[in-house]
Amino acid sequence: MGFLTVLIYVIISLIGGSLLIGLSLGFFDLAALSAYAETVLLGDFYARFSIFLIGMLLILFCLRYLQAVLARSRKNKSVTFESPEGKVSVSLSAMEDMIKKMLEENPEISHIKPKVFLKKKKIEIKIRGILNSEVNLVNFTKEIQERIKEKINILLGEDKQVQINLEIRKVALGEQKGTVEDTEPEIPFRHYE
């Protein structure tokens, strides 16, 4: 967001906020403000045209700001790089699915919820899960982090810096993998015809 856009939003917010506070505390008389607007601001064609242009500029600045926000959010939803054949884009959700499928093969961990974030110069992966068996956490997590990093480097190339954070939400020793899963209730009258 540019400096000019921020400046305009700050000025409009200060003027609007001051006007509303002044009206609520009785510093301004609404009838006097209305009379002033009718005689001075709206009485002349050039004044009306100037107010129209200011209003159009404000709307355009607002639309430009929304466009920048939407473009930034779309840009951060995928990893894009150039190959000799063209532009390649890998969505973050595809990377999350790949990580989840890769980790579901391990019986030691279940209920895996990976989340991939794009930072300025690195990819940050946060993985939450439930530990199902007794393992050496240091070796187990190191092995998982190395496998994921290797898989991401194969997928995106060696030039991407990858940070992997593992969070063990619960230790469920002695429980089966399927016992903790939530079951959906059956919809009543589902088979009714």
What is the secondary structure topology, with strand pairs?
Blueprint: H1 3-25, H2 30-41, H3 45-75, E1 78-83, E2 86-91, H4 92-104, E3 109-118, E4 122-131, H5 137-156, E5 161-171
Parallel strand pairs: 4-5
Antiparallel strand pairs: 1-2, 3-4
Structure description:
This protein is 51% helix and 22% strand. The chain folds into 2 domains: 3-75, no CATH class; 80-171, 2-Layer Sandwich (GMP Synthetase, Chain A, domain 3). It has 193 residues and is an alpha+beta fold. It has 5 helices and 5 strands; from the N terminus they run αααββαββαβ. It is elongated, with a radius of gyration of 29 Å. Strands 3-4-5 form a 3-stranded mixed beta sheet, with helices on one face. A two-stranded antiparallel ribbon has the order 1-2.
Quick gist of this model?
The chain contains 5 helices and 5 strands.
Using only CA atoms, what is the Rg? 29 Å
Report the structural category: alpha+beta
* CATH third-tier fold name of the largest domain: GMP Synthetase, Chain A, domain 3
**Count of folded domains:** 2
The N- to C-terminal Cα distance equals: 57 Å
The CATH architecture of the largest domain comes to: 2-Layer Sandwich
Provide the succession of SSEs.
HHHEEHEEHE
CATH C-level name of the largest domain: Alpha Beta
Helical percentage: 40-55%
At the fourth level of CATH, the homologous superfamily of the largest domain is ANL, C-terminal domain
Shape: elongated
Strand content: 15-25%
Task: Based on the model shown, name its key terms.
single chain, alpha+beta, GMP Synthetase, Chain A, domain 3, 5 helices, 2 domains, elongated, two-stranded antiparallel sheet, 5 strands, 3-stranded mixed β-sheet, 193 residues
